[in-house]
Design a protein that fits this description.
Layout lengths: L5 H5 L5 H26 L1 H15 L6 H17 L7 H27 L10 H24 L1 H4 L13 H18 L7 H15 L8 H18 L14 H6 L2 H6 L19
Helix pairs in contact: 2-9, 3-10, 4-10, 5-6, 6-8, 8-9
């Protein structure tokens, strides 16, 4: 089961060109949905306008080498390792879901385009990775859905409460679940789980406009721009992080010693002091 290219087995009933055309259609739907989402939310317009505004407030120019270093840090931390998550459970769940999705999609494309029929033997490692990716996706996704979602873990709402924003994660979970069930039942085009697998894929990629999928493309760009504003001193027009015990700061802001004393106490971890669970 784990070493079988299920898509090659479909070639007896479904032409490889149809499967390849379906993949291309899904790519077009993702691109179209992402562009429409950016137009509707005006996220790209806001991003570039904000970047221009930050340039006017910059206190120094960030060189090309420094920009490359910042882009590398964004790639390593925010993209590859999800380092923006302080909660280790949330971070691990996200990593399992993200890398499971990447492995699952890439191996699917490889098998459909590179080994479309049984006449071309598929290296065993590719379907094995396909199954591993689907399992990683399922584990990370279900863990998030039942235990980590903020409206479940922090607000006490039932796990079965569904909103339109949940379209992405639910269709993603359905895709991995039906893929594994399709494989477990032996594959084939006449398998009910194959039909459900195709349907969930279509909803996943066709519903990009109504889901949170598009934010994955905007998020790294926003993280990069935020680090640029820290480097050039513009700080998105936010005030600097002052040391409240500094006499110069207290002279600049006399309200500090007036209401907090000359040695203001440490406010502690605030929101990070305890796990959010207030229901």
């Amino acid at each position: 089961m784990f070493v079988t290219n299920l898509f090659a087995g479909l070639s007896a009933d479904i032409s490889p060109s149809i499967m390849q055309g379906y993949i291309i259609l899904m790519i077009v739907l993702v691109m179209g949905g992402t562009i429409l989402d950016m137009i509707h939310k005006k996220s790209a317009k806001y991003f570039f306008a904000n970047a221009e505004k930050a340039k006017k407030s910059a206190k120094r120019e960030v060189g090309g080498g420094e920009k490359v270093a910042i882009a590398t840090s964004v790639l390593v931390k925010e993209v590859l390792t999800s380092g923006e998550f302080d909660n280790p459970r949330r971070r691990l769940s996200h990593l399992l879901t993200m890398w499971g999705t990447v492995i699952f999609i890439v191996t699917t494309v490889i098998m459909i385009f590179g080994y479309p029929t049984t006449e071309t033997p598929t290296p065993a490692i590719i379907p094995q990775l396909w199954h591993v990716g689907a399992l990683m996706l399922a584990v990370g996704g279900y863990w998030f859905w039942f235990a980590i979602r903020v409206d479940v873990s922090a607000e006490g709402l039932p796990w079965f409460r569904v909103e339109r924003a949940d379209l992405f994660i639910l269709s993603l979970l359905a895709t991995s679940t039906f893929a594994l069930l399709w494989s477990y039942m032996g594959g084939g085009a006449k398998n009910v789980y194959f039909v459900l697998f195709v349907l969930s894929n279509t909803v996943l990629f066709g519903g990009v406009y109504w889901s949170k999928f598009a934010h994955m493309f905007f998020k790294p760009a926003a993280a990069f721009q935020k680090k640029i504003t820290r480097a050039d001193g513009s700080r998105e027009n936010l005030p600097p992080e002052y040391d409240l015990t500094d006499p110069e700061v207290q002279r600049k802001f006399p309200d500090i010693p007036m209401y907090m004393g000359k040695n203001p106490p440490n406010m502690g971890l605030c929101i990070k002091a305890e796990r959010a669970k207030h229901y």
